Amino acid sequence: IHAGVTMETGMMTVTATLTAISIMDPCHGTLYPKIMDIEEGGKILTTKLVIYDDATKGDNYAVLTNVDTSVEVDIGCIRLVFLNKFVGDILGFLNKFLDGMQEQLNKAKELAAEYSKDVAQKLQERAPRVSLNVKMKAPVIIVPQNSKSKNALVADFGSLSVQNSFSKAGESENKIPFVLDKMVVELTSLKMSRAVIGKKLAIENESLILEPVTITVSITRNLSAALFTEVPAIDITGVMKSVSAKLSQKDFSQIMTTLNENLTEGQVQIPHSTEVALGELTDKEVMESHVIPPPLSRQPSEELTCKLKFNFEIESLSATLYIGKEDLMAQRSDKAALGKVELQVIAVSGKQMSDESMEVKVILKDTVLDDSRQHKVNGINRMIQRSKSRLSEEGSSNMIDVSFKQDCSKDSNVDVRVNSLYICVCLDYLMSLGDFFTKGMPQTDRGEVVKQETKPSKTQKKVKEDLPPPPSNCMDIVVKIEKPEIILIEDQLNPNCNCLVLDMEVIFKMKIHPESQDMSANVRDLQIFSCVFSKRRSVQAQILNPCEISFYSKTPYGKGAHMDIATSDLILNISPATIKTMSGISAALAAKPGSEDETSKYTVPVDLWEVKKLHETDFWFLKTGEEVELEPEEILDELIEEETRAEQLIAKIPTMVIKIEGGVGKRTVPLLIVEASFSGEVKDWSSKLNVESTLKLEVAYYNEKLSVWEPLLEPVVEDGKMKRWELGLEVMMNDDLPPPPDEDGDSVDIVLPPPKMTVTVFSHEEIQLTMSKTCLEVLQNLGKSFGDAYMLVEPSEKAGEIISPFCVQNQTGLEIVMKLDNSFEMPQDADNFKVKMTPDRRLELWNKKKGLSRKASVIKAAQEGDEKKFIFQIEQFNATREVTVKRAEKRLYQINHKSYPGDIWSVIVNTETPIGHKILSIQSMVQIKNHFEIPVEVFYKDDVNVKSCGVVAPEANFGVPLQAVYTPGGEFLFKPVYENYQVSKETVSWRGAENLGTVQLACQGESGHSAFYISVRAEIEKVYFDVGDTMSAKSFIFHLSPTVILHNLLPYPISFQLEGTEEHTTLQKGKNTALLNACVGKSNVEIVIPIYEGKEWIGHRSITNDLPELSMLTFEAYEGAQQVTQNLGLHCKKNDGCMDISVYSPYWMVNKTGQDLYYKASDGEDFTTHCHDNLDIVMFSFKQKTLFSTKKKASLKIATSEWSDKFSLDTVGSSGDVQCKSTKKQTFSVSYFFYIPYVSECC
């Protein structure tokens, strides 16, 4: 140390230089013997202090360049090594001297406080001026992993500079200037890194974690604050540019390992000599600890001024995470990036007034979290941000606004606003983030974990805990979260994936007063809906309907809390689509193959099952506990009952509706409804728990055929009124009582103590479940739909757009007018509630939206019926009719018109109720159903001509127009839409439909084409008249079907050709096709198996009405010049005018033996060869007489062996062994197994 003092006229100069300082660690084996050191060749401290005499006295005070003291400091770079072991040793040494120094330190504090008051009074008018010029190379702190590790964290605090200047803000009446001291503190090149430390604390390798940061703080002091109050006494402004951190998994692991090992190394328990036993506190000490100092208050005469003003701002704070364990390097690889989080514009501002009142504001402009993984670049990678579409109601553009206000009496208000929060939850990304932190945690050795047991001391007494003192001031806290958008996505790579959206608004209020603590929370418009992520603003499927949840709690001082939880009606819609979306979301939680950590595998000890001696083991359950002697007063203290604090929680849900929906795509409706209400009360949960609750339940299912709700869980009838079935629950915590004494000492019965808790579930009414066939069908369909959704099975049908609840179709062929009531949303072309419907128009109708009343019952409303009334008018005949739509039915309405030969025209209103959809079809009494796969055109015959009345689409219904029905003959003709066919010459008439049965119509083809045959079957359906419940009216349905359908049930493709047609048609295995040119009773068909065992097989059969249900079809082929045959089965079934013909093989043989096999039927000597290299199926059959009997047997032969004994082929599911003996006295054993469809596996 070099120091010097120079005395001159009017000034004194003091200089000091510190060239070297070091702290050594004498411990043996440490890699860091120097705890403190400086850079080589540098000076640690250079100071120059100049004190001027009378520089600011008198008129010189107005000269701002004059100062009382000038300080120049230049500090070099100090390198510090932080080892908690070394710090602990130093503190342990100094702790021995603290007890004697504590009293002296308290006295010094009192003297310093008195002296500071005197100095403050002297400096009210003229404050001394000190010029500062500080340049400092901030210290470099090295935190090793432990004292013997080269791995370390390096915190370089860069360079620090402090400079100040003085300025004039005004002057007093006495011409004394008001001086402001402006000080600028700048810290540059602050950084942090992970490094490997070499000799003499040199850094060998380094990887930056915190990139260089610059911090600028400007401090303005009002040196005349007592007289000049327009400027705050202290004004602090701080600015920090962007702060960027890059953290790899290895960096995080190194940080956690360093904290774990450095802070725990050499840790010893320091004895505290000042410890006081709990029982030694006097009542006076307890009372003094509860004394509350009175709040400071400002005198009314004092002028309110600003004492402190501050403003800090951070432009950007970001951190980028990288996966993998990279070596130390300066640059990070973008391919290893996991994510980036950024806080944009963090600002803190506030001021403190002279009466100790305070106001602070904190804002956060935006928070951004991005998924930076390379394989997710083209997907949804923005996880958190400020939503642009949902700004706050007050127009705030900040994500978070925090306001804190405190008045002069120390009462405070805290207001927190969270605005426009967007959170996209991707479980796969959350799992990756979790792996980053969990895998980066240091692995602890399980063997080093020692359980420390705390033993009670004999001298310690159990003292009843005193209540904490009540707060002396009031605090009001308000937290408001405005419309956050929380989204759970199914597939991050697909913007059009399904997702679940949670929407709500939360308001939380808390009031802390000396008398009580009040809390209230309100969740408004809580709803959950599913949608497509990219279209979430337009199409939404509701899961949880908007509802409200309120919470209120009041806790008087020293008493228990009284809480109340209430909700509005909760309506939950659960559909297979929702389950499928949730299954897709949760699929990301499934463990990935090979992701199991090797360290988590447990190795089974080799000697696990060997017998061990007990005295060689160290099991905890074999150890003897130490006895503890208790004093009598301690026993009495333990028997003191806990004070009951009268805690109470009341919860109530007035209506809870769970709708289990079914359907396909977006077309879903409730099929099962659970409607319930809940009320419960919980008391004294911290002492003696007591719970009482009641659940009222009602369950119903939807009968689609009748379009009504039917009860599954029957309601209870009481005093002639219906009410829900009730279920009660009671939970009671019992006293800890010892078991009753055994009066009979010789008794061998075990006396158990009373239970600690009693749970009672009860119901006073019997439960009645009604299971019908329809209910079982509904439950079965729901089970399959939800099972497929859970297993992520795609539905067989998907609906496009959302289907309206009502639809009206005009199939009369005339223009009608529909008159609607005001319960519908009016179509655009509606005029005075009337809509004109041209022929074939389809009108979609929607109900007006209305909310569920608070006490409304969905089941009761549905059972009463959602009845709708329509009025339709046929202005041409001046006919007006009213239709009531309630369930699926058909009703006939006559209109005011007659035609020859005296027919009164009528229309049928057909009401259909597919799931969630009511279709109202106004049509004639004649319908045509097309069962072809091609369209068919319909013609009718009037007095002179044949006219077309429409085309029936495949598998569709067609309502014949009224003018085509009411003709003299009522006759219809048909033809396929192909141009090379003519209209059928024969006709069918609805007037003679009752005696028609099934007829075959021929549509002649042009030259060179065979005729097209249509099978027409008439069906008479009974319907209601417009009034009444008797089905006395009639409706006519003509079914158009192919005459013959051919099914190929063989394991090989076939081709067929009808007699008179030009070419063969191929039919693949398992497929079917209609024989459009087949005339039953006249046509012959040729069936060919093109390739089977290297030959072409041909069979013929005539198509006649008397074909038996089961018959034999013989196929012929040529092997050289020799003809061979193959018998197969032919199945014929007549279905409502259509004949289904199926070609099949009775037995399919599969050879898995690896040997050549030969099969022989018991009814002949011919055999079938099955080579070992033939992996195809071999078809096997019997002769016709044996095939359709119940005694079918076969024999088996392997290669050159003899034929086996006959074994049965009758029982499906049977199995066994067949023995084949060879001429070389060898026996071959072949296992066989039969299962549907009669496949024999030979193994």
UniProtKB/TrEMBL annotation:
Residues 445-467 have a biased composition (Basic and acidic residues). It comes from the Eukaryota. Keywords: Coiled coil. Residues 5-787 form the VPS13-like middle region domain. Residues 445-468 are annotated as: Disordered. Residues 98-125 form a coiled coil. Residues 869-1227 form the Vacuolar protein sorting-associated protein 13 VPS13 adaptor binding domain. GO terms for biological process: protein retention in Golgi apparatus; protein targeting to vacuole. Belongs to the VPS13 family. This is Vacuolar protein sorting-associated protein 13A/C.
